[in-house]
Amino acid sequence: MAQILDGKALAATIRGEIAARVADRTRAGKRPPGLAAVLVGNDPASHGYVRSKHKACLEHGLHSTVHRLPEETTSSQLLDLIDRLNADPTVHGILVQLPLPRHIEKEAIVRAIVPTKDVDCFHPENVGRLTTGFPRFYPCTPHGVVQLLNRYNVPVAGREVVIVGRSDIVGKPLAVMLMQKPTADNPAAGDATVTVAHSRTDNLAAVCRRADILIAAVGRASLITADMVKPGAAVVDVGTNRVGHAWMGDVAPEVAAVAGWLSPVPGGVGPMTITMLLYNTLAAAEQIDG
Ligand code: GUN
Hints:
By secondary structure, the chain is an alpha/beta fold. The chain is built from nine helices and eleven strands.
């Protein structure tokens, strides 16, 4: 049976380290790191995610505000709010929860966030810095995946990684991070051989079977079945799919019998994503306030 990549336990350890650093700053008279989350519309999953992020901030000594706006909010109203948050010294990180309603131009919103407060690492300047090996922030979910692999001593350098899914939030930045050479400026780089598979990939099963590390980030329940996994491989499940009242990953449960390591859903990548958001908000405060 696979060793469990326990994101909940690892998140608790890293959150403890973050809370201690936040407490040190507050004791030294500095402002607590502050996150402003912006949520437009009524998507129930998004409301749940933002609630979890807000709660995690408060539990670890960070300042947190949530701006809940109605579905019919205009782009210009949203841009006005972002301008105010950009200028607010109590706010070190700004997060606009995606997806946005269709009438709002997502690209304009993402570009309006000042890059020094872009704790999601969605702004083109920060994507460019990441891609050229000088990240200001690592994007939260990819960073959580890398931390899970590293802290469980899964060998990455030189190995075959297959990422299923090419999203801007997970697949694409994770491929960049795992393919890069580690440096002092880019310590989370993986030095791996990376393949990105997607909906047009021919013979997905054969491509996945090459992987020493298989990362599923598609959003389709049980897409990855046991026959697609090399025995002993590490399998990281980034999927969160609502099936009835339960959450299911992109990886079928029977994969646990074949894999060497497996991240569960829930309790794998999810808690790590929120932890890396706290980490980035602390890093933003250090960069802005010293
Ligand atoms: N929607 C799904 N994942 C994310 C994320 O990491 N950040 C934001 N802002 N929205 C999301």
